[in-house]
Amino acid sequence: MTRTRTAPGPAPEPEEFRAEARRWLAKVAEHRGPRGREWGHGDDSVAVFENWTEDEERTHTERIRAWERTRYDQGWGALGWPEEHGGRELPAYYEQMYRAEEAAFDVPRRTEVFPVTQQLVAPAIRIWGTEEQKRRWLRPMLRTDELACQLFSETEAGSDLAAVRTKAVRDADGDADGDGWVLNGHKVWTSGARVATWGVAVCRTDPDAPKHAGITVFLVRMDAPGVTVRPIRQMTGGSSFNEVYLDDVRVPDTDRLGPVGEGWRVTLTVLAAERLDSGTLGLDNADRALDLARHLPRPLTGGEQQQAAELYVRTLVQRLIGLRVTAALVAGREPGAEASVGKLYATATLRATTDLVQQLLGPRLAADTGEWGTFAWTEHLLGAPGYSIAGGSDEIQRNILAERVLGLPREPRPVEHTKTPKEPTS
Question: What are phi and psi of 314, to 5 degrees?
Fold first, then answer.
């Protein structure tokens, strides 16, 4: 396909940009109707976490990857990135405007590994990577030639990511430069581990340092010897999450991201981006639930009308919160509070969507009759609660707001008292 990248320059006016995006999309994709989809036809999936086999996940990943490469090569990917990385240096909110236009066209819906790669990992490499790492990883990740997953969570750590136990120790003979690391540990809840080429692993490199100080981050080849991926069976029947075991995995020091012992700062960069991305979480399904209300083959009750109206207003507010997050980014501020509010609001939107659909469908929600747009909602119902934990639990977000916005003191941890054994008597 011919490369027709638009050169960086003054940002076009928003309406001009949106019209340009529509013209380009019309050349490369089929339009899906005035609301972005035709009710009653096509894919009715509203899964929060995909319910695919490994073969299905790989097939869909390749479809999405082909589309992302087309976008990137034609100048519609990496919109906010500098030209040297294939971007157009447009303000951050232009990506949102593009996504709004793209929603009206029949293009593959991105799975989680794609925003993780492009919006979490690539920016972290841009901030913390060496020049060689930037040359090596940024373009391939933005174009999705390389995909990355997060090797963050651990069963023992819970929501306290700084309590990770995965160890990385120096291995002077481990690589050609005589400067490598050996990783051992167990990660859990990893999306996209079966299709990712790299995993961003948070490891403890100094067990004697204070908890937040002895951490280092590495990029690990997911096909390296000693890396084992085991799918986790979900109650939806799918396995979009995985456990990842690291058994004597050798990593060259050139794949270390950021300084030794300062991995917590690198980790916070990724987590902040994750919470920014969660601000749009659940909006597609909320819009689909409102479409269900419009197409229900009976009049809505007064209570159902009120629920639908409240959900509609909630989607508007959530989009406004997203704009505030974007405005903070444009102003050069870290949108910590805005991102936490957005994450909390998004999980509440997921719950409100579930409540409305349950009211509208009743028993039809639980009956797999083959009717379009009914039983498919069980995957939303079963998956939505997981986002109260994913991307930083609701409790963590409230703590952030209490401390950083309200100025409340951090609650002291209880002190464990150890009884001193009595000295033996003679």
Answer: -60, -40
The two tokens of residue 241 are 């999450």
Determine how β-strand 198-204 pairs with β-strand 148-151. Answer: parallel
**Six-digit token pair at 9?**
């320059």
Is the Cβ–Cβ distance between 197 and 221 less than 8 Å?
yes
Whether 262 is catalytic: no
Per the listing, tokens 């793209």 go with: 102
3-state secondary structure of 47: coil
**Maximum Cα–Cα distance for the chain, whole Å?**
94
Q: Are 180 and 171 a contacting pair, CB within 8 Å?
A: yes
Q: Write the burial class of residue 413 (CB in 10 Å: 0-12 exposed, 13-18 middle, 19+ buried).
A: exposed
Model pLDDT, residue 417: 40
State the DSSP code for 127. Answer: H
Name the pairing type of β-strands 198-204 and 227-232.
unpaired
Q: Is 26 left (phi over 0), alpha (psi -120 to 50) or beta?
A: alpha
Selected catalytic residue, list 154, 274, 338, 379:
274
Cα-trace Rg, the chain: 23
Token pair in block for residue 61: 């990943």
**pLDDT-flagged residues of the chain (< 50):** 1-6, 35-36, 176, 414-426
Closest CA to 287 of 307, 313, 315, 309: 315
Q: Which residues contact residue 316 at a Cβ distance below 8 angstroms, ignoring those fewer than 6 apart?
A: none
Contact call for residues 211 and 244 (beta carbons, < 8 A): no
The answer, as to whether pTM is greater than 0.85, is no
| pLDDT value, residue 158 | 67
- What is the DSSP-derived secondary structure letter of residue 2? -
